Amino acid sequence: MSDMTLGAREVPLGGLRGLTVHRTLPQRGFPTVGAWCFVDHFGPTTDQMTLLPHPHIGLQTVTWPLAGEIRHRDSLGSELVLRPGELNLMTSGDGVSHSEFSVGDPDAPMHGLQLWVALPAGARRGPAEFEHHPDLPTATGDGWSATVLLGEVAGAVSPATTHTPIVGAEVRVRPGFVRLPLRDDFEHAVLAVDGPVTVDGEDIAHREMRYLAVGRSEVGLQVQQDTTLLLIGGEPFDEELVMWWNFVGRSHEDIAEARADWEAGAARFGHVLGHGSEVVPAPPLPDVRLTPRRRSVT
């Protein structure tokens, strides 16, 4: 697998009138970086997040706001307002549901990242869990600093629960050229969150992602002004994934069963307090059998 640049596509979150996000993962022929299987970047925008209760299986949701506040409610009974610099991590296991709504000043900008991590076979049928981490460790180097969301960077270890060898960090880079340490047994990707960046000599536009193959112990980054980046990575994830709507399974049957259970109000997804019977309905399944997403790019 060689290094490559991945572009972003615009997707309405929560329907045609929902918040527009820029999605860099998954892409056709490129489903994962480590166990990371979904990367959405939203804002800056004054549009509001209005996501009614919706289900998940087989994944962890990672929510990291850079500006604005989000009220999280879930079927485990969790309810809190997530603010910039704080991490929400929800592990779906075999089923969970949640809602996310912007709160606070409606004219204040929203900006942030929402990501999924695929759960490995040993954890994907486990119980649902929710974690809120208001204080995360930071690492610093010459010209850069990083807030560690998951995993470890330069000796700083996040308390967030992980199920595969993985890393995720918000990296702030000062003008000039810097070297960021990496694990050479991980593959990585760098997302240009708020401006362009040069990654090992390759110019990456705002919102693009640069994939970095296994085998490097550092990456060179160059920016013209203070810039925020997202670093993700992990051991290559070798389990085949069937991804559809909000579900990560291993087969068409996994997905079809989860969809039917959600539409039937099955107990596996619980109930999110504060919303009554209002939920996001599942879209119809396609007329073809769902198959695993596999890497087909080299």
Care to describe what's here?
This protein is mainly beta. The chain has one domain: Jelly Rolls (Sandwich). Helix content is about 5%, strand content about 50%. The chain has 1 helix and 26 strands. The strands form 6 sheets. A 7-stranded antiparallel sheet has the order 1-22-19-24-17-14-13, with no helix packed on it. β7 and β8 (about 80) form a beta hairpin. The radius of gyration is 18 Å and the shape is globular. The termini are close together. The model has no long low-confidence stretch (mean pLDDT about 95). Its cofactor is Fe cation. Keywords: Iron, Metal-binding. One of its GO terms (molecular function) is metal ion binding.
Explain the layout of strands and helices.
Layout: E1 4-6, E2 9-13, E3 19-25, E4 36-45, E5 50-56, E6 59-67, E7 69-74, E8 79-82, E9 87-91, E10 96-103, E11 110-118, E12 129-133, E13 138-141, E14 144-150, E15 152-153, E16 156-157, E17 166-173, E18 176-181, E19 187-192, E20 197-199, E21 202-204, E22 209-212, E23 218-223, E24 227-234, E25 242-244, E26 247-249, H1 252-264
Antiparallel strand pairs: 1-22, 2-3, 3-4, 4-11, 5-10, 6-9, 6-11, 7-8, 7-10, 9-12, 13-14, 14-17, 15-16, 17-24, 18-23, 19-22, 19-24, 20-21, 20-23, 25-26
Bin the strand percentage. Answer: over 45%
Note the gap between the termini. 5 Å
The ordered H/E elements are EEEEEEEEEEEEEEEEEEEEEEEEEEH
- Low-confidence spans: none
CATH architecture: Sandwich
What CATH first level would be assigned? Mainly Beta
Overall pLDDT confidence? 96
Please compute the radius of gyration using only Cα atoms: 18 Å
Reported for the largest beta sheet, the result is: 7 strands, antiparallel
Number of helices: 1
What class would the helix/strand composition place it in? mainly beta
User: What spatial form do the alpha-carbon principal axes imply?
Assistant: globular
The domain count comes to 1
Helix content: under 10%
Briefly note the CATH topology name. Answer: Jelly Rolls
Strand order of the largest sheet: 1-22-19-24-17-14-13
Let me know the CATH homologous superfamily.
Jelly Rolls
Number of strands: 26
Organism: Aeromicrobium yanjiei
Pfam family, one: Pirin
Family: Belongs to the pirin family.
InterPro entries: Pirin, Pirin_C_dom, Pirin_N_dom, RmlC-like_jellyroll, RmlC_Cupin_sf
